[in-house]
Design goal:
Keywords: Signal. The protein is about 50% helix and about 20% strand. The protein is built from 3 helices and 4 strands.
Length: about 120
């Protein structure tokens, strides 16, 4: 009778061992990744604490900020034809003809949009 090493039982045991080693290797690789992320997180927290300790003063020049227009006139292609700033009642009084020729589309807060016909 010949005895061989390649029996079904031995092959299954060998495949099980390979699978177990693969699982252990993957778990170690994921653990190393988590440790690296934890180190990065700790470094980021330290930088944040340093930044919070330092007082940063930034001066912002708000003079050149364009205010929101009161009325915007667009053509049928969606291009802005005109923008008017100021009190709406005063604008309607000064540009009566333009407001009569145009159709009201929508409003967003105090900003109104008109379609030039």
């Amino acid at each position: 009778m010949n005895t061989t090493v390649l029996t079904q039982k031995n092959v299954c045991a060998f495949l099980g061992l390979i699978m177990a080693l693969t699982i252990v290797w993957t778990a170690n690789a994921q653990g190393a990744t988590l440790q690296g992320e934890q180190v990065n997180e700790i470094a980021a927290m330290e930088k944040l604490e340093i930044a919070e300790q330092q007082e940063l003063f930034v001066e912002i020049d708000l003079i050149n900020i364009k205010p929101e227009p009161t009325a915007t006139f667009i053509n049928k292609h969606g291009e802005v034809v005109a923008e008017f700033y100021g009190d709406k009642a005063e604008l309607e009084q000064r540009f009566k003809g333009l407001f009569k020729k145009c159709d009201f589309i929508t409003a967003s807060g105090k900003h109104e949009f008109y379609l030039v016909s």
